[in-house]
Amino acid sequence: MNLVLWVVVELLALLSIGGYSKEHTRPAVVNIGAAFTFGSINGKVAKIAMNAAVEDVNSDPSFLGGSKLVLSTHDSNYSGFLGIIGGLQYMETDTVAIIGPQVSGMAHILSHLANELHVPMLEVVAIYTDDEQSRGTMIALANKLAERRCKISYKAVLSPEAFATDSEISNELVKVSLMESRVIIVHSYAVIGLKVFDLAHKLRMMEKGYVWIATAWLSTVLDSTPVSGEVAKSIQGVLTFRPHTPDSKRRNAFISRWNKLSNGSIGLNPYGLYAYDTVWIIANAVKVFLDQGGTISFSNNSNLNGVGEGNLNLGALSTFDGGSQLLHNILQTNMTGLTGQIAFDSDKSVIRPAFDILNVVGKGYKQIGYWSNYSGLSVVPPEILYTKAPNRSSSNQQLDHVVWPGQTTVKPRGWVFPYNGRNLRIGVPHRVSYKDFVSKSGSTNEIHGYCIDVFVAAVNLLSYAVPYEFILYGDGHKNPSYTELVRLITSGVFDAVVGDIAIVTNRTKIVDFTQPYIESGLVVVAPVRKLNSSSWAFLRPFTPLMWAITAAFFLIIGVVVWILEHRINDEFRGPPKQQLVTILWFGFSTMFFAHRENTVSTLGRIVLILWLFVVLIITSSYTASLTSILTVQQLAPSIRGIDSLITSNDHIGFQVGSFAENYLTDELNIAKSRLIPLGSPEEYADALRRGRVAAVVDERPYVDVFLSKYCMAQVVGQEFTKSGWGFVSISEF
């Protein structure tokens, strides 16, 4: 994560800056300082590595043109105050660069002094407990988590290393164990961090279900010190990070030298490689500075003259005259060191930082992947990915299998319901109508209904218990406002809402919905009327004009067939009266396919076939229309759907508490004076029957229930909105 990444960025910037003067003589020595806690693992490794780097620089006298690089060290001993004192002492002794300190609080103060004295420094961030850098780190981590809609649920702040006791740590761990989160990040010095894991193991917090992440301090422990069986047992399954250093001949050669350099006192870790490279960055910058004609010279700061009394004499602090030029040289660094390619961007940060991701297994660890700010998580080394286009797609973010605490490869859920937590407060609308969906039993006060049954069934499918309680919302005299019910989640009155809650746009802007568990949408319900039946009902399928045209065609077909057949067909011959009867009989008998005269001409047969097909269509249409007329109720012609309802001036009914009212006024621009609130299916029926409203607009599930009891109305047109019902929770969940 970016939080750990800063360690790499800052460690590569353990520098202070110089300038040049008009003199061209090279100094005999160039003084640099280092302010570290040399009792820490990183402090021990860095000291050995920096001394080795100084020795390598000075092994070639021509490199600095006869000048010798001299390193002096100051042990801050875990004390920010001592670190500041050490920095001030360096500024009294013509020191051109200061490597360190390990704690950002010290670095922050020293940076102000450095700016005033023209001895700028690039800070190093180290692992600590309760100080300014720790608080800043937590703020930065919280910001990054917020980008992914996560948050820090609890911050367990421990006393600094010299003061943190087992009792204090245990008390904090007990608090954590009672909470819901099972993802725990440990950011501290190694001594405190190992103590945290030891006590967590004793409290049975290193078992299945937990996710423990240690920042880079743990990787330095694994690389630089032997791990006892007890320590290894307490950190099984932990994930940690290590600054990535690509494989190279120079790096491997230095690793081979390390045992001799350290006399076997401590193992090498990446911070030693960075410390070594830092000395070489300074040496190269000083070399360029001297080659440019610069001279190491200092002068007193006039702004500090007379400041301080007694032994505190700030006027003795000297200013490095050519600091800006040396700073420029450092920022222009482009070299290959033990840690790989070294260069800085416009923000003075190292380019392309990367980390190894380690999983503690046994007495060691296995590497499960890498992280870089170029392509994110990967099982491929970053230096290979640099040759390709960056790819941060979710499918490309991969790591090898992790062995989690409890020796399991099953990914932990990362949370549980807290032992000291309260039940989830679930708001439920206190309905006075359509109680099939949500209602309260008068005798037992239990809440039940279709929506409640769906929720309970979903909860029962979970593999863990969910403690909750239903809380009714509403006065019980009328349906409550669902928009207001949803809003109460954002104010913390409810943790969730269960019921017949429509998923609409303005609600999704402030809360999260589950997937819809039932389809819904607004429809128009209008009254129906029955047409009076009579003995002439059989004529209704066709209009008079249609009847006349049909009769004319029967007559025409008879005439056409007679013309084509009477010359060659004896059945169409005879006296004129007989032929007239034959024409009429043949034409109308085709209606029932009952004609008995045979056609012998080709054209006559073609005409007859086509006409019989037309007759089939006519009779089928007639039969279907007559059946519909005799059996199906007909709608009142004035309401055909939402469009005709909008253009009319009729009153429209809606359900009290529904979003339909706002939709009709805000989206369809229907005057509010036309809207009539109705509270129950009985009121729907009465208003439609008496003509108080021309139609009712409501959601499909309510309408289906209404129509199952009342046959005097029917849905007209199509659904003009598409939505559904879902359960609601706060957006940050």
UniProtKB/TrEMBL annotation:
Keywords: Glycoprotein, Ion channel, Ion transport, Ligand-gated ion channel, Membrane, Receptor, Signal, Transmembrane, Transmembrane helix, Transport
PANTHER family (UniProt xref): IONOTROPIC GLUTAMATE RECEPTOR
Signal sequence segment: 1-21
Alphabetized InterPro entries for the sequence: ANF_lig-bd_rcpt, Glu/Gly-bd, Ionotropic_Glu_rcpt, Iontro_rcpt_C, Peripla_BP_I
Domain Ionotropic glutamate receptor C-terminal: 425-732
Membrane-topology annotation of the record: Multi-pass membrane protein
Record Gene3D superfamilies: 1.10.287.70, 3.40.50.2300, Periplasmic binding protein-like II
Tagged with keyword Transmembrane helix: yes
Domain of life: Eukaryota
Record-annotated membrane-spanning stretches: 545-564, 606-630
Pfam families: ANF_receptor, Lig_chan, Lig_chan-Glu_bd
Record bears the keyword Transmembrane helix: yes
Protein name as annotated: Glutamate receptor 3.2
Gene Ontology MF, one: ligand-gated monoatomic ion channel activity
Location of this chain's protein in the cell: Membrane
GO-annotated cellular components: membrane
Location (main, coarse): membrane
Sequence similarity: Belongs to the glutamate-gated ion channel (TC 1.A.10.1) family.
